[in-house]
């Protein structure tokens, strides 16, 4: 009798291509097409399997209950001040989304935009917002169903009247207001019928828009004839004179920057073009051109020049205000006034992924004071654009939800509470240990290790989390998942891998393109270090990552299946030969390389998880979590590797694909986040031996 085939096993194609001399098999290419009836049937079987397996996990409900408390703790955003009004976001316990609110001149607060009022189903998210200089109007952007497409609206702050919108195709659009609030600069994609097929997510342009006017009448400012993958930035001085436009090709770590005098000829003149550096420039209230850059300074510096004198735009003519620091990476800054009216600068630097705050003289004469900040992360620094002796500092750490602290020039070395995020339930007593692993090439890799005060003796079930790409730094932050795991008696570790920004642009570039394998080596070294130091064992170790971090843990599963017992791989990139053909993949080829180039294809094939699967290997348990409205990373990646691992593995550890509809890559309602996180933690617990307490 012929055995009944496993309904989960996807049919394999005998599809082999020769690409630049490489023989590349792709047996599951048909799973790229979500509308193919075969894909639909296979995905339905995966859904049934995932629901049964995840629903039966013994600790799922206890994790859901603890996560419900910890995730419903609130969050407070940094205030943006405009003419005495403060705009910020806040989410209270029980709210599904943060609301956008305004604090009026008399101190009263009002809600301006509530995503749940716009959509009680909870699928609408607030993507971005920007108040006018006068604080009487606010532009905000929302998207629906996780598509992140961002429709732009303009609201009258006093009355709540909708003045403009929706303006579509505004994904990732900055907004720069002209004085008076009647016009703004913004970024919008060209209409689909104006671009080649398959390039609808590209071809952005900078426009000047009059509030309430038909967007078809917008004035084109910049972008024609430039790289179709460009992302643009726009900034405008408070007096409306100086416009700065920046452009980067996709996520490339370099910018072109132009400056225009709108009180003069209005022509955009190049400040930096064709230079391999990231530069942020703006004209501040003192009339000087401020420049924050990693140009010839991979850890960052701040300098000033004269916007009206192009001769001073050359780096050799800059006046340095904050020099590059040894061992510290500049991440943010704000202009403030001293007690005597002298201009000063608050600067944020990170040392081993923990933030420091200091005060500098704006004339370049040096550091004036260090500000006492608890060990943690500074999410940003905000000060009124018209000046003042006060600034507001966003703060979080491993046990503190996002909150806001206040700095005042009268006591420059201290911070005081301004607005604390409410906490819905008890936060466990977390002990944070900092340690370093040694990677394959001898590089030191920093880790935060979180455990419970008085936890049982080691080794313990442990989750290792990482990202390692796109210049993203993993600094201390409130994570309900980490806290729920630690509260259950587990250990949670965060690795600061190459590819991030923890040690500046050199650290980033040491983990991108031909150096991407360094990231995976760093992560493996972190896991080995946790084992060697007695925190855990391979049978008790799980790894967790999403997006580029999904690539990280996918590579770990296929390169080091012996090191880990469980993998949670969320919204991942996994087929690195074809990633550019889907979603926003084309914008990432400076980070990873392109398969169109023979040498770069070799880099990609060297680690592409989908192409590293070997039949008969005992792979760890893997949970893929995907979001069907994800317009950044197509769910096809997880489908293909799930099918490949289910076919190839010789172990009895499950390979599970959990799909979710009507959500995307980014923000989501709290209740949906709780359900996802509970499944992920319960899966890790079941495979590493943790019993939720």
Short structural summary:
Pfam families: Peptidase_S9, Peptidase_S9_N. With 693 residues, the protein is α+β, with helices and mostly antiparallel strands.
Structure, described:
The chain has 693 residues and is of the alpha+beta class. Helix 2 packs across helix 4 and helix 6 crosses helix 7. The protein is globular. The model has no long low-confidence stretch (mean pLDDT 95). Helices cover 18% and strands 34% of the residues. The longest helix is centred in the N-terminal third of the chain and has 19 residues, at 37-55. The strands form nine sheets. An eight-stranded mixed sheet has the order 32-33-35-34-36-37-38-39, sandwiched between helices. Strands 3, 4, 5, 6 and 7 form a five-stranded antiparallel sheet that branches. The protein is built from eleven helices and 39 strands.
State the main characteristics.
693 residues; 39 strands; 11 helices; Pept_S9A_N; alpha+beta; serine protease; five-stranded antiparallel β-sheet; eight-stranded mixed β-sheet
Proportion of residues in extended strands: 25-35%
Number of strands: 39
The percentage helix is 10-25%
Give the number of helices.
Answer: 11
User: Numbering strands along the chain, what is their spatial order in the largest sheet?
Assistant: 32-33-35-34-36-37-38-39
Uncertain parts: none
Structural class: alpha+beta
- Tell me the overall shape: globular
For the largest beta-sheet, the strand count, sense and barrel status come to: 8 strands, mixed
Radius of gyration, in Å, reads 25 Å
Could you report the average pLDDT, rounded to the nearest whole number?
A: 95
Tell me the span between the first and last alpha carbons: 48 Å
